[in-house]
Amino acid sequence: MFNIQYLLEHGAQQRHYLKGQIIFYEGYEVKYFFVIVEGKVKMINTNVDNKEFIQGIFYEGQSFGEPSLFTVEQTSPSTAIADSDVEILRLEKNAFLKLLKNNFDLHLETTKAIAEKVQFKIIISKEISGHKPEHRLETLFQYLKRNSVKHINKTAIDLTRQELANLTGLRVETVIRAVKRLEGEGKLKIVNRKIYLE
Question: Which of 94, 174, 68 is nearest to 131 (CA)?
Fold first, then answer.
């Protein structure tokens, strides 16, 4: 988790976005390091049919969009959207890079955040390339359970069926059927339309 107070003390600015507001668009020149103070942000791409594919969902204390700060292209490959009302810190890129040089803990936390994003992409790419829907969902659920931030209930999946579909490359109807099959196999429970892991 990033030290919010430390970032504020070194020039980070706080911004508020309402649910559904765009924080930045795909192709945006990355000028800031972003950390969520409160709320939820999703990073998405859309295809020519306007179908949304979720690249990642991020919560309080997590950063997003930072890989582009270190690439030659320096533009975001995804659009960032407030998935709830959200408070975000943004720190200008050069100030952030200067802090990284002088603060090992911040450098380590940033490296860890980027590594987790890369690991998630590898896991999801492997699933999409050739596994059945139930396997894709089980793998995603287990990843979320292992890697959820501390304030999230590790047994509850805080994602809609549409979000699960957009994360795994499945259709919503396929997700619904696969979740029902997994429930029938005793691998999860559905209570009031919410998924709970066993």
Answer: 174
The confidence band for 127, taking pLDDT boundaries of 50, 70 and 90, is confident
pLDDT bracket for residue 122 (50, 70, 90): confident
Whole-number percent of the chain with pLDDT over 70: 96
Q: Are 54 and 166 in contact (CB under 8 A)?
A: yes
Kind of pairing between the strands at 13-17 and 40-46: unpaired
CA–CA dist 71, 73 (Å, integer): 5
Helices of type H across the chain: 4-9, 93-102, 104-128, 133-147, 161-168, 172-184
CA neighbours closer than 13 Å in the CB half-sphere of residue 60: 8
106 and 33 Cβ atoms separated by less than 8 Å: no
Asked if 188 and 195 touch (Cβ cutoff 8 Å), the reply is yes
> Whole-prediction pTM value?
0.78
Paired with 52 in beta bridges are: 46
Query: What is the Rg, in whole angstroms, of the alpha carbon atoms belonging to the chain?
Result: 17
Question: Nearest 5°: CA angle at 65, between 62 and 66?
Answer: 85
d(CA 1, CA 183): 33
C-alpha distances (whole Å) from 144 to each of 64, 71, 154 are 17, 27, 8
Model confidence at 25, in pLDDT bands (50, 70, 90)? very high
- 22 burial class (0-12, 13-18, 19+ CB within 10 angstroms)? exposed
